[in-house]
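Feature request, filed as a ticket because there's no other form

It would be nice if the structure record came with a short human-readable summary line next to the C-alpha cells. Right now we just get the raw output. Example of a typical job, pasted below so the devs can see what we mean:
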Amino acid sequence: MDQLVSFTSLPNLHPALVHFPIVLLMLAPALDLASLLLRRHRWLDHAATVATLVGAGSAWVVFLSGRFAADGLGQVAPAAQGAISRHANMAWWVVVTALFLGAWRVFWLWQ
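Raw output as currently delivered:
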C-alpha cells in the first residue's frame, strides 16, 4: 500500500476514491427519473442498475480504504476519534443500503 501512496501527494487513497461511489449513487436516481420520463429508452433503467451496483461495490472498496486510513492515523484526539467513528458508521450504512438496493434492482430488473 505504501508504494501506491508514494505516487500521490495524498497521505492515503481514501480522499481520492471517495468521490466515485458518491457520484455513482447519486447518478442512479437521476437515471431512474430519466427512465420514467423517457419510457421508450429502456437502457436508462439498465444504466441506473449498473450505476447502483458499481456504486455499491466502490462504496465497499472506499469503506475499506477508510478503515486502512483510520488505522494509519496513529494517536488522535478523543473528539476526532468520535468523529472518525461516526464517519465509519455512516459509511458502513451507506455500503449496506447500496448493496441492498443493488440486489433489489437486479431482482426486479430481470423479473
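Something like this underneath would help us a lot:
Residues 24 and 51 are 5 Å apart (CA to CA).
The chain is about 80% helix and 0% strand.
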